[in-house]
Amino acid sequence: MKHLAAYLLLGLGGNTSPSADDIKGVLGSVGIDADEERLDKLIEELKGKDLQELIAEGSNKLASVPSGGGAGGGGGGAAAPAAAGGADADADDKPAAKEEEKEESDEDMGFGLFD
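The structure assignment produced for this chain is given below.
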């Protein structure tokens, strides 16, 4: 994705046919090393193609993809009645809250946007 993003940025800047060196320059300006194999494949796949046409074609394909939506599914319903042992129910809820906090602490999940 980082290679494609750099390619598109160069295209927006007026470079209608960015080279591998152009893309390396964009990525290098933000401290990212280009993957030669992926970069060569991208250049090969996009060689001689118009970016605006590719974007329009992709938009048409995305328009035909179902995107959920559907019916509302009704109301949330009433709250469940309290259990006979109210203290036991509270004890069960506390560990779940701790697990939730643990999941939220993984801010970057081990990778960055341009890694």
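Interim note for the steering committee: The radius of gyration is 25 Å. The chain has five helices and no strands.
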